[in-house]
Structure formats: C-alpha cells, structure tokens
C-alpha cells in the first residue's frame, strides 16, 4: 500500500458534487496548500441536480439519467482546482443515489441515499477513516445545514462512523459542522439588499432563513482568503449546477476574498482549542491538537473511489 507523509489529516463528508466547493472549498484548498492531507468523501453523484447548461438537458434524471457521471467529472476538476487529490465516493461511485429535495418521490428510490442503511453506509466511511486516520472531520449539522435529506443523512452516517471508529480506537479528535453566523447573515441581508440577484430577496432578518448559528455557537473562523481564487475556480468547475450569472459570482466580484475565503464552523465533538476575538473563535481546525510529527507515514489509498 502506498503511503504519504502528513502531520495533519482532514476528512470532509459531503452529500453531492459541488457541496464541497460552495460550503468548504476555501478551507479545503487552504489546508491542502499548507501540506495537510485532505480527504473528500462524497455520498452521491448528484443525479437529481438542476441543470443550468441547456446543452446538458438530455442528461437529466427524466431523460438519459446520466447527469451523475457528468457531475463526477466536474468534481474531479473542482478538486484539482482546490489541490485535493484524495477524493472518494461513499461505498464506490454510484452506490448511493441523489435523493432529491425533501418530500419528492425520488426520496423513495431504492438506491436513494435517504434510504441507506445507517450502519452499512457508516461502515463504508469507517473503512476510509481506518486508512486515513483523520484528526479532524467536517460535515453538516443534524438539519443538513438547510434540510436536504442527503445532507441530513450525511450527518447521520458521519456521526455513526465516528462513533464506530472511536470504538476501534482511531476516531477523530474533533468533529466540526459547517455553519454561518447570524451576524454574517444579517450583514449580508443589509449589504446585498439592493443588488441584482439578491440571495436574501424577501428576507428581513436571519431568523427567517433555514440556517444560521449564533456567534456564541461558532467555534472556528477559518480565514482562507489566500484560497478564495481556488474556491471560485472549483465552483466554476461545477458549471452544470452553478450558472456563471449566479449571485455567488456577482457578490464575489464585489466583495472578493472576504466573501469567498472566510468559512465558519461549530464544534460538535472534541475540545475547543485556543482562539481569539470577542468569542474566542479558533483560527485553525487543528487548534489544541498535538498532531504527529511531519514524516509520519499514513496510508494514502487510491484516489477517486
């Protein structure tokens, strides 16, 4: 088995191709550039995604049903932009299918991730964790950040896998959930209220949104503005899902690295490390951990499983 040297090992579990870039892309690129071993596990191929490129309409689930393979290629390109080489699909590509939005008939598809047996799916993730031995794991909260069934299931599978890994003696030291402070949402509502394609259209206060954490709940603020361009490049690789006229790009053009490069997390498991500022936010997901010396051998495994 091939090995690699990495003092810090970070594992991220996402539901669909593009989730990794939108939610945690800057963090991934930042740590990859700093020499950490970053592993991405994606749970589905995103077969039920909304297609924004007219020439790809024939790939849709109600047509040729080949969107998943196309999105897998987009994911490969996005990871290349982020500098992440260890990317895998949970249980292998295509084992679990995109469930679609909550309440749709696609939730009941026999291969839908929403229908996955929890311990079986967690077992696939434990195999990755046994190989990589991450100190830090990142996924969604119990509402899947905004309520998508595959995000919720990714949370459940990740937490169960971490529990099983701890029972075997190699569970992670920390588990984080991606998050957005309500103070940041409030500033966005105010700043973007008059912009074209305002993402907060019709929203007056953060509590009206299906996500958001109090500043006190936030544990880590990762300033990855050095990797903002990599995040934008990764998002552009997901062109089938994120149109070039998306509000994300228009806002990035106005606010640049500050908007794209700063990402926030709550701490679900483990000891909070030293931080700063009025809330003592960590600036490093590995804060407080005694990571292994550089040069420790850790199995790298195959790519793109």
UniProtKB/TrEMBL annotation:
Record EC number: 3.5.1.103
GO terms assigned for molecular function: N-acetylglucosaminylinositol deacetylase activity; zinc ion binding
Gene3D superfamilies (alphabetical): LmbE-like
Cofactor stoichiometry and binding remark: Binds 1 zinc ion per subunit.
Enzyme kind, highest EC tier: hydrolase
Required cofactor(s): Zn(2+)
Binding-site residues for Zn(2+), renumbered to this chain: 16, 19, 151
Source domain of life: Bacteria
Catalytic activity: 1D-myo-inositol 2-acetamido-2-deoxy-alpha-D-glucopyranoside + H2O = 1D-myo-inositol 2-amino-2-deoxy-alpha-D-glucopyranoside + acetate
GO BP term, example: mycothiol biosynthetic process
PANTHER family in the cross-refs: 1D-MYO-INOSITOL 2-ACETAMIDO-2-DEOXY-ALPHA-D-GLUCOPYRANOSIDE DEACETYLASE, N-ACETYLGLUCOSAMINYL-PHOSPHATIDYLINOSITOL DE-N-ACETYLASE-RELATED
Role noted for this protein: Catalyzes the deacetylation of 1D-myo-inositol 2-acetamido-2-deoxy-alpha-D-glucopyranoside (GlcNAc-Ins) in the mycothiol biosynthesis pathway.
Official protein name in the record: 1D-myo-inositol 2-acetamido-2-deoxy-alpha-D-glucopyranoside deacetylase
């Amino acid at each position: 088995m091939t090995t690699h040297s990495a003092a810090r090992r970070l594992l991220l579990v996402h539901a669909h191709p593009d989730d990794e870039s939108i939610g945690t892309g800057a963090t991934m690129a930042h740590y990859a550039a700093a020499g950490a071993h970053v592993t991405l596990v994606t749970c589905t191929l995103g077969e039920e995604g909304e297609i924004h490129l007219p020439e790809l309409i024939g790939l849709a689930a109600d047509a040729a049903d080949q969107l998943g393979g196309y999105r897998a290629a987009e994911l490969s390109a996005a990871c290349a932009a982020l500098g992440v080489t260890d990317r895998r699909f949970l249980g292998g590509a295509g084992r679990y299918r995109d469930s679609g939005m909550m309440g749709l008939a696609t939730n009941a598809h026999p291969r839908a991730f929403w229908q996955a047996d929890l311990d079986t799916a967690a077992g696939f993730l434990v195999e990755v964790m046994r190989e990589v031995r991450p100190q830090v794991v990142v996924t969604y909260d119990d509402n899947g950040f905004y309520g998508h069934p595959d995000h919720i299931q990714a949370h459940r599978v990740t937490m169960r896998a971490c529990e099983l890994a701890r029972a075997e003696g190699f569970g992670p030291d920390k588990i984080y959930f991606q998050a957005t402070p309500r103070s940041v949402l409030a500033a966005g509502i105010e700043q973007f209220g008059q912009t074209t394609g305002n993402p907060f259209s019709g929203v007056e206060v953060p509590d009206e949104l299906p996500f958001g954490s109090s500043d006190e709940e936030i544990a880590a603020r990762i300033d990855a503005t050095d990797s903002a361009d990599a995040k934008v490049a990764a998002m552009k690789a997901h062109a089938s899902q994120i149109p070039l006229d998306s509000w994300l790009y228009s806002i990035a053009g106005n606010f640049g690295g500050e908007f794209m490069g700063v990402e926030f997390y709550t701490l679900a498991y483990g000891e909070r490390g030293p931080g700063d500022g009025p809330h003592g936010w960590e600036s490093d997901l590995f804060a407080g951990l005694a990571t292994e010396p550089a040069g420790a051998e850790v199995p790298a495994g195959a790519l793109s499983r």
